[in-house]
C-alpha cells in the first residue's frame, strides 16, 4: 500500500508495510526521512550513479558555464549539471563563501591568504591559489580578522 504525498512539486510515495513477525503496520514518510538524512549532503548525479558527498568533505566548487565541478578533500572531482548558484543555495552553510564569480570555497580549509598581485586563497590540499574578486576582498579580510 502506498499513500501519495505532494511536496515541492514532486510526488513522493509513503511506504506502508506489515512487519513479518509482529502484527504491526508501519508507515514511513520518505520525504521527511530522506530530507533529514540528506540535509548536510550534496547529491551528484551521473549517468551510472548518484554520489552523496557530505558538505564537510567539499573543498571547493568551480563554475564551468552551466556545470559545476565539486572538488573534495580526498582529491575526487565530480561534475554536476547544475550552476554554481544552485550549489551555493543548496549548501547554504556558514562554512562556504563565494569568493569569486566562479569559486565557492569551504572556509574550514583556508590555509593562507596571499595579498600580492590581488587577493588569492590557498586551500589545504589544493594545487593552486583561488582568486578573490575585488568586491569580496573586504569581506574576506573581515572574516579572518575576527578570528
UniProtKB/TrEMBL annotation:
GO MF, one annotated term: DNA binding
InterPro entries in the cross-refs: LytR-like, LytTR_DNA-bd_dom
Residues in HTH LytTR-type domain copies: 42-146
SMART domains per record: LytTR
Protein's name in the database: HTH LytTR-type domain-containing protein
Organism: Portibacter lacus
